[in-house]
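Example 3.2
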Amino acid sequence: MRPITFISLCVGGLLLSGCQAVVLDPAGHIASQQRDLLVWSVILMLVIIIPVMALTIWFAWKYRASNKDAKYEPEWDHSTHLELVIWAAPLLIIICLGAITWTGTHLLDPYRSLDRIDRDRPVTAGMRPMEVQVVALDWKWLFIYPEYGVASVNELAAPVDRPIRFTLTSSSVMNSFYIPALAGQIYAMPGMETKLHAVINAPGEYRGFSANYSGDGFSGMKFAFHGLNEADFDAWIAGARAGGRLLDRVSYVDLARPSEHVQPISYGSVDPLLWNAIVGRCVEPGSMCMGEMMALNEQGGTGIAGIRNFLPPGSLQYSRPRVTPLGGDNAGHVMQICTPDEAREAAMGRARLAEESLLAPPRSLERLRGAGLPRNTPFARSTPASRADAVEVGI
C-alpha cells in the first residue's frame, strides 16, 4: 500500500470516529421505529442492488475478449426463466416496501397518540402525556409548558418514559422542528397548529435544531433537549419558576423580534391566553384574530361597515394587505373580508354616492365585536345632516 493511501485511510478513520450516527442510534421509541423503517427499506433495496453489481462484474469477466471458452450466441434474444427473475424480484420488493410504508404511515403518524412507551411497555390508562407548545421564532425556539405554567427559549426538557404531545406553530415563516434522537421532523407554520407525539427512553442531552431554512439566523437556530428522570425534571421546572420572568403579550412581542444565537432563557409564569393569540396572529392589542376573521366571513362579512374596520398602517406586528377605505384616502390594513356580492355592491354604491356627493353611513354605528353581528344594510340613503352625526366604525 502506498504511503499516501495509508495516510488518507487513517485520517478518514479519525474524522469518522467523531461522528454520531444519532439517526441510527436514537433514544426514543418513535425514532427507533423510524430507524427500523429506514434499515429495512435499505435492506430490501440491496436485495436487488448487490446481485446486479455482482452480476455486472461476473458478466464482464466471463465474456471478456480473451475468454475463448465463453459460449457465443449472437442469435439469442429471449429466456423465460430470466424474464421471470427480472420481473418477479422487483415486484416482490415493491410489495414488501408498499406494506412497510403503509404500516409505517399509520403507526408513525405524528398526530397519532402513543400506545407504547417502548417495545415492551404499553401506555397505561393513567399515564397523561406532557403538553409542550412550540413556537418557531426568528431565529429561536420558544417552548411553553401549559401544565406547569412555565416557558423556555432554546432549551427543552422532558421526563424519561413519559409521552410528550407537541403542538407547534410559527411566528412568521414556515419552519421545521427536529430532534433526531426523539422523532422525525415536523413543520411549524404561521396561523396553523401541527402536532407531534413522542417519548424519550434514555436520560441525556440531545440536539435539536431547525431543519428548514428560514433566513439569516437559521444556522444558529439550535437548542438542547434534556431527557431527565422525574426528580431532575421537577428540579428543572422549579428552576424555571425561580427565574421570575413573565411571558405575556408585551414580552412576547419583544421576544419575537428577529435575533440570532440567543442563549437559553426561562420564564416563571405564562399568560394562559398567549398561545391562542400566537396561533391566531393577534398578539398585539387591537388586532383581529384569524378565527374572528373566519367567523365574520362565515356570517357573510360585516357589510359596508367592514370597509371601515381597519387599523392605521404600522400598528400591527405582522404585515397585512393594504387598502384604501371607502370614502377616504388613507390606506389601512384589511381586518376581515366581505363577500364578493357585497364588494360589487360597495363599488356600485361608491360610484352612486360620488355622483350625489353623499357619504352614506352604515345603518348601525355601534362598534364591531365579532361573529353573529346583524347584517348592515349597504348604502342606506341619508341626508347631509345625517353625515355630520356619523362616526367611524372600528375595532
